[in-house]
Amino acid sequence: MWVEWKFSGKMPVPRSAHGAAVYDDKMWIYAGYDGNARLNDMWTLNLTGENHQWEEVEQKGDCPPTCCNFPVAVARDCMYVFSGQSGMQITNSLFEFNFKTLTWRRIGNESVLRGVSSQPPSRRYGHTMVHHDRFLYVFGGSADSTLPNDLHYYDLDTQVWSIIQPEPNSDIPSGRVFHASAVISDAMYIFGGTVDNSVRRGDTYRFQFSSYPKCTLRDDYGKFFNEKQFCDIQFILGPEEVKIMAHIAFVAARSKYLRTKILAARDARQQQMEKVFGTGCIEVRPCSSSSNQGPLLEVRLPNANPEAFEIILNYIYTDRIDLKESYNKNIIILITDIYQLAGLFLMPRLAHGCIQYLDYKINKQNVLEALYNADKKKIQIVKDHCMQFLVKEENFTDVVMSNEFSDLDKPLLVEIIRKKLSPGKLVVADSNLDKNVGTTLESDMAVFLESTGKEFCDINLVLDGQVIMAHKSILSARTQYFQAMFRSFMPPDNTVNISIGDILPSVEAFQSLLRYIYYGETKLPPQDALYLFQAPHFYGLSNNRLHSFCKYSLEHNITYENVLQTLEASDYTKIFDIKEHALKLIVKDFARVARLPKIACLSRELLLEIIRAVADSHACFAFSIGLAAKSGQQQPQICMTP
Questions:
Q1: Domain BTB spans what residues (predicted)?
Q2: Which parts of 591-640 are beta strand (E)?
Q3: pLDDT of 292-319, one tens digit each?
Q4: Could you report the per-residue pLDDT of 92-138, keeping only the tens digit for each?
Q5: What is the reported pTM?
Q6: Residue pair 394/364 in contact by the 8 Å Cβ criterion
Q7: Are 355 and 392 a contacting pair, CB within 8 Å?
Q8: Cross-strand bridge partners of residue 162
Q9: Are 29 and 18 in contact (CB under 8 A)?
Q10: CA 417, CA 412: separation in Å to the nearest integer?
C-alpha cells in the first residue's frame, strides 16, 4: 500500500534526474535538475522512527560539478558518482562521498599512479553503475553522441579501471541510454533503455559476475622487489653513485634500453674476467639469482636521479608509480624527472602516465616550478602543458602576481608575456587520445617468456626429458616452492626436475603454468587444467585464482575436439568425475569423436572404457575392434548401430 509522507520545514526543491541512495537508515538524494538549472546539493531523510524530516547536508571536500542523469552506487561507507550531464564541466572522473565524514574526494587521472594501464570510461550520461564485491560496474549511457556497450569496472582496492572482455558466446546487449540495472545475488540485470534513433527497448539481459580470487601478479612482483631477495644486478646512479639493487629478468623484460645496458655490462665483465684468469677459465653466469654465486652485475647511469629511478623500478615490477609522502614537496620536479628517464628507457606507457599526472596535478602554486624545470631540461611537452595552463584567463593574474614569478629567468619571462599577448594555438599532445600507448606488465612478461628473455634464462626445468628454460627471480617472486628451494640450496647444474606432487604434468600443461606465473594468463584448455588442478597448493601460489580457472575450464570448455585429451588427462590425474563427464560427451558425440586422429593414440584400457560406455548407452549394438600390438598395424575401428 502506498502512503504519501508529508513534511514541514526546510525541504529540497522539486527535481528530476537526481541520484538517490540508502545508508544508515537514511535516504540520501544528490544533485539533479530543477527545470531551470542543474544542482549539486545533498539532502537526507530519516527512514526509521516517527520523525521523518529532510535535512540538508553540509558537504566538504572536492565536490562534483552540478549534474543530472548520473548513477550512484554505495560501497564501503561511501557513495560513488560517475560522470553525468554537467555541461562544459562534464568529466569522466569518479567522485567518492564518505558518509561518515561528509567529505567528497575526486578520483581522477591520479589512478595512473596505481596502474598506468587504467582505462576509465569516457564521459557520459544516462548510464548505470552498480556495486558487487570489490568492484563498481558501469554500463551504457550516451558518450559524446555514441552509445557504447562495453562494460567497465573499477577495483576499489587497486583504484584502477578496466574493461571486461565478455565470453565469445555471450549475448552482448546493444548500447543504450536511460536503462535500469540491478544486482541480485551474483549477477547484474539490465532492462530497457533507449537505443539508436530513440527506439525504446523492453529486453532484459543478465551478466554473471565472476567470483575468481584477485590477480596477485603486481602484488607478488612488488613484494619481491621491496624484499630485495635474490638480487643479481646493482644500478649505480648519479654523481653520488647511489646504489639500488634489482633483478635482471624484470628490468630486461620491461625496458629495451636497460636490456641493452645489461648485456653490455655482462660482456664487459666477462672480458675482464677472461683478462684476469684467461680465456675459457671462468664462465660468468649473467643472471644468477643466488646471492652466493658471484658479485652483482653493475650498470652505471650517471645522469639518473636516484629517487626517480627507484620509482621507475617499482613501476617495472608493478605497472604502478608509487609516490611516497616524502616525495610530495617536489612532486612536479620528480614526475618530470621520471618522464625524462621514461623516454630514455623507451617506456612510452610510463611517459604517457607522467603527462596524465602532470595534467592532473599542475596548479597555480606549482606551475612556475614545473615550467622552469621543463625549460631547463628541454622537455617541450611538459613546458607546453605548463604554458597552456598559465595563459588561461582564470590563472594568469594570480600566477603573475606571485613572488615566484619575478624570480624566473628573463628569457622565460619574455616567452610567457609574448605567449599571453599572442597565444595562438598551442600544440599540446592530448594525454587522453591514446589510452593504449606502450605496453603493459603482462604483455612485456609474455614477450619475455616467449622470446626476448631466452638469453637471460638461468634455470633449466626438466620435464619428461625435455628442458624448459626459465628465470629464477620470476619463479621465486610467484611461488613459495621455488623461493624456498633457491634460498636453501642451488640445484646441481641449475637443473630442476618438475612434478606436481606425484603427478608428472604434460609439457603443454606446465607451459600453461609458466604463462600463469609470468603474466597471469588464465586461458587453460581442459586437459591442461586437469594437470594444474593441484598446482596452486603444491607450488605455493598466493591464492587459488589458478585453481578457480582450472575448475571453470573443466566445466565450460570440454568439446568433442578436446574430449579425448581430457579423458586421457583425467584418467592419469585420477579426477574421476571429470573422466566420467568426458565419457558421456564421447558417447553423445561419438560419430565425430571416433574420427579424430587422437583416438588411435589412446591406451588399450581407455579404448575399452569407451567401448563399454557406448555399449551401456545403447539397447543394441555391434562392434568389431582390433588392437594394434605394434606400430604400423591396423588401428582400432569401432562401429556402432542404433
A1: 231-325, 457-526
A2: none
A3: 456 899 999 999 999 999 999 999 999 9
A4: 889 999 999 999 998 865 555 555 556 789 999 999 999 998 899 99
A5: 0.74
A6: no
A7: no
A8: 153
A9: yes
A10: 9
| Amino acid letter, 240 | E
- 154 phi, psi to nearest 5 deg: -115, 125
Measured distance CA(453)–CA(450) in Å, rounded: 7
Q: How far apart are CA 329 and CA 233, in angstroms?
A: 30
- pLDDT tens, 458-496? 999 999 889 999 999 999 999 999 999 998 887 878 899
Report whether 21 contacts 129 (CB < 8 A): no
Quote the cell numbers at residue 137. Answer: 560496474
Q: Which of 254, 170, 216, 157 is nearest to 522 (CA)?
A: 216
Number of helices (H), then strands (E), belonging to the chain: the values are 22, 24
- What's the CA gap between 244 and 128, in Å, rounded? 47
Separation CA 265–CA 285 (nearest Å) = 12
Cβ(54)–Cβ(12) under 8 Å?
Answer: yes
The x, y and z cell numbers of residue 603, run together, are 591406451
Q: Are 183 and 131 in contact (CB under 8 A)?
A: yes
Number of neighbouring beta carbons within 10 Å of residue 289: 25
Q: Which three cell numbers stand for residue 2?
A: 502506498
* Burial state string for 531-546 with b = 16 or more CB within 10 A and e = fewer than 16: bbbbbbebbebbeebb
Q: Report the 3 state secondary structure along 213-263.
A: CCCCHHHHHHHHHHHCCCCCEEEEECCCCEEEEECHHHHHHHCHHHHHHHH
SS3 84: coil
The overall average pLDDT reported for the chain is 85
